[in-house]
Amino acid sequence: MSVARPARCLLSRRFAAAAKPIAAPSQCHSSFHSSAQLAGPRKPRFKSIRAEEMGLISPEKIEEYGKQTFPQYTPEEMEVLKKRYTPEQMAALEAGEAAIDPRDLTIQGRVRRDPYKLPYLDDFSKIYPIIDKRPQNLPPPSPRARFMTTEEHTLDLEKRLNAMIPKDVNFEGMKEDEIHAELSKHIDFDMEEAKYFLEPETLVNSNGPTNSALAPALGKKLSGVAGKYKAPVDPEDRGKDDAGIYKQVKRRTGLTVAQLTTMVVKTIVIRNVHNQSRLGKIRSMWVLAIAGNGNGILGIGEAKAIEPEVARQKAKLLALQNLRPIRRYEDRTVFGTVEGKVGATIVQIHARPPGFGLRASHRLFEIFRLVGIRDVAAKMTRSRNPMNSVKACVQALQSQHDPNELAIGRGKKLVDLRRVYYCGRVY
């Protein structure tokens, strides 16, 4: 203990700390989820409507609203229902009506007033496809039914033709044109033909039509319908694309069907790919196609589909859609040496003199033929992946520089850039 500092000063802090009340430990409980706690109570989705605003503030108003919204059956309606339902069904109907109080529906029920409401407040006199099921009014098929033979088909056709001939007309002495004109007045041949070919009766010992999930078919030459629907066919196609296969390609490229059909399209890479999902491995077909006209136009397209034919069709259309011009020196080779790299695949293309030919792999060979290049040498120094080799070759052909632009950039003439004075260099 220091003499200069008395004991009262040393113990004053400890006494002051003991005199302070001890705060209770905080009750901190960690939540069971990681989302942040809400700052306030959650707001309701819909605005609350008071009873005063609806006018339901007295028992008389509630009863009036219930009678207007949920009316009871009138005596006339009850008489009509008694004609259609049995006494047991009428008793069940009256018991259900008595069990439901309109006051409970008015206070507790919710009636939609929006324009998209379903018509569920009705007397069930109509069938709505959205709510109700299709009624099964027809009997089940007969177990003794079988298909007709050739002789039975012939007899059935004769029976149909005899039933079509009017009985009150005498055809004796009439010419063939007069008979046809008279039959046209009494018979709708388009409708009868549609009934016979689209909905034929091919069974024997059947008990007529039965319940089916198929919708009734419509004929293509029905009276009143024929000639009103016309497929959107371009007259400039001249019948070459009535199915509309090249419709999107024409709109995006500006080419006609005649020009598109002159292009040569080839499939050069096909691969089987699989997508691992919770249902297992889903197999698909991946196709790479190229298109060209042999005169400096080239396009590439890739597509994937489950069906191989669908994948090929999509890849060919994409190749036609991606047509681009390719520069060629003297319409036979490339300008100097070009290189393209995709992934680990590097394709180098070198220009060669006339008559050298095409010395490249089979896939690059097809690309050069579609472009219209005849004298070139190509090699792949690294990976030879089929997909990457094709893409790298197309990238190299499209990355050629224009000699005129290079000459202008260097301030020289084209002959100075190519060094072809006195025919000293030809490639």
Task: Please report the number of helical segments.
Answer: 16
- The total strand number stands at 10
Mean pLDDT: 81
Mind summarizing the main beta sheet?
Answer: 4 strands, antiparallel
Q: For the terminal residues, how far apart are their CA atoms?
A: 107 Å
Q: What proportion of the residues form beta strands (DSSP E)?
A: 5-15%
Shape: flat
Helix content: 25-40%
Give me the strand/helix succession: HHHHHHEHHHEHHEEEHEEEEHEHHH
How do the strands of the widest beta sheet line up side by side? Answer: 3-4-5-6
Radius of gyration, CA atoms, in whole angstroms:
43 Å
The parts where pLDDT drops under 50 for at least 5 residues are none
Question: What structural class results from the helix and strand content?
Answer: alpha+beta
Write the layout of secondary structure elements.
Layout: H1 7-19, H2 51-54, H3 59-69, H4 75-84, H5 87-99, H6 102-108, E1 146-147, H7 150-164, H8 176-186, H9 189-198, E2 203-204, H10 247-253, H11 257-261, E3 264-277, E4 280-292, E5 297-305, H12 308-321, E6 324-325, E7 337-342, E8 345-351, E9 358-359, H13 362-371, E10 376-380, H14 386-398, H15 403-410, H16 414-418
Parallel strand pairs: 9-10
Antiparallel strand pairs: 1-2, 3-4, 4-5, 5-6, 7-8, 8-10
Helix pairs in contact: 3-6, 10-12
